[in-house]
Write a structure and sequence with these properties.
This is DUF2267 domain-containing protein. By secondary structure, the protein is mainly alpha-helical. It has one domain. It has eight helices and no strands. Helix 1 crosses helix 2 and helix 2 packs across helix 4.
């Protein structure tokens, strides 16, 4: 995961700590919104993904509560990332790097299956 954090920090122009939190938030979103079996298989091929998702799910606090009231989904994800101080451009850069990293490790077909199961997610691949 540290190589992913470094890639995100450089490409999005954010601090490594913020990049790590953003990765956790995105992976927690996938865990919550995606099909359990496919997500379990995906996370098994990406070392540290399950731990990062767990940390991202735990770090929500008030933002997570508001996300739940907003209905979650991609809008809730954007709200959580915005809560970390990310601009829309930074969110896009982080998302691109996370999905590229996962695709490198899990394969394109596996990530497409997950994206197809989450409304609106495929547009970010």
């Amino acid at each position: 995961m540290q190589d992913l954090i470094a890639r995100i920090s450089a490409s999005a122009g954010i601090e490594p700590g913020t990049a790590e939190k953003a990765v956790g938030v995105i992976l927690a979103f996938l865990r919550k919104e995606g099909p359990k079996g496919e997500i379990d298989e995906l996370f098994a091929t990406v070392p540290g993904a399950a731990e990062a998702a767990a940390a991202g799910a735990e770090s929500g606090g008030l933002i997570s509560g508001l996300m739940g009231m907003m209905g979650g989904g991609l809008m809730g994800l954007a709200a959580r990332l915005s809560g970390l101080g990310l601009s829309m451009g930074q969110m896009q850069a982080v998302g691109h790097e996370v999905f590229a990293y996962v695709k490198e490790r899990a394969g394109e077909e596996r990530i497409r299956q997950v994206a197809a199961a989450i409304p609106g997610l495929s547009q970010f691949l």
